[in-house]
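Support reply, case 0932

Customer input (verbatim):
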Amino acid sequence: MSARAASKVREDGLQALLREGCKQMLSIRPLAAKFVVPAAVPIVTRDDVPASIAAFPYSQAMELVLPDSYDSNEALFEYDRLPDRFEFPQPVVHEFDEATIIEEAGFAVVESGLILESVLARRDLVDKHVIDDPRLIRKVRSAQSRTIEGQRYSTLCPMLHTSSFSKWLTKELPRLQGVHHYAEETGTDPHLLLPQDPPSYVVESMPIFGFDDDQWSTWSGDRVYADQLIVPQHPCLEHPLSLYDHRLQYDLSYKAISPPACEWVRERALEGVDGTESTERIYISREDAHERRVVNEEEVMDALEPYGFESYLLTELSFERQIELFANAECVVGPHGAGLSNIIFADECSVLEIFGKKVKPTYYMLANSAGLDYATLRQAIVGDDISVTVGELLEHRCITGLDDEK
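Our regenerated output:
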């Protein structure tokens, strides 16, 4: 039984699993997309990039080996099914001539087809976009004709995957290392294209990571043309599964992040902010979220405060403050959520992730890539939220290993 299936049985029962399985097997649109998209939308994978395309290798190849076992109060099928190791090749910046960013979707298209890297290097996301808007097939084909339409840039690097805080920190920010490398190698600074009305954390990260206001602009959503399109690879493995296969298989390899990418993000971020010498013990609150809130959070904090923990609602903090906070973290405790992405800025830190109904190994893999001590605590489910047993929390080694006071 797959991890996803086991989780479904555990949470909703066997009948729910069987219903879901039948639903997925009979999902006509994902099944159609599996066969239609490759025929209708030529996709340029990393292996498909022609040797004639200028390439600028940077950073280094690296292997990520997961521990033989993980620290949890119960077995987690989602962790048990992960590969033992991930092989990350040396990342490359490709320079494509005459490329188009098609309207609305933001796909990057060249004469040979759609560049998969522009869709987070995930085939299943291409299928999802085409299912949601079949007109994309026509738009990709028209962009392949290399007709110049809309605004034109000389050297452009799209950075359009910004709606998720976690994706921005772990998937997009590491690509800026490639942009800097390209500029050093060629003497040309690519112009960054951000989405319209980008989140504040995106705008705030620009100067921290070395980009002035005149080096980036926001995208209107219309078609854009680039004489040279600069495409740094994402710091993850390419995900070749169709949407149909993605739903039926448990393969989260695309979530693993290259360790050198994590290191670069942390070092570059610390160069761009005013650091402090304080040691932080952080509890991440999800009080303002619609799920995975800790229903007895006041009781939890009453227990953690004697150990020097402070509760933070990260949505109220600037991006710079979050970097400073987690760069000085000694211990981070919190329910599963995007706020844990900030551990990418931490060093020599313990992370205790609290799960309720839904278990995902996203931050387990991130913690290992960042070289951090990591553990999980599975707790009682209260609807979409979590109730923490305080005694069990205080007995966890991540807490007992701390002094009573900072």
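We compared this against your earlier run and they match. Two observations from our side: The first helix runs from residue 3 to 12. The CA atoms of residues 70 and 375 lie 7 Å apart. Please reopen the case if you see a mismatch on your end.
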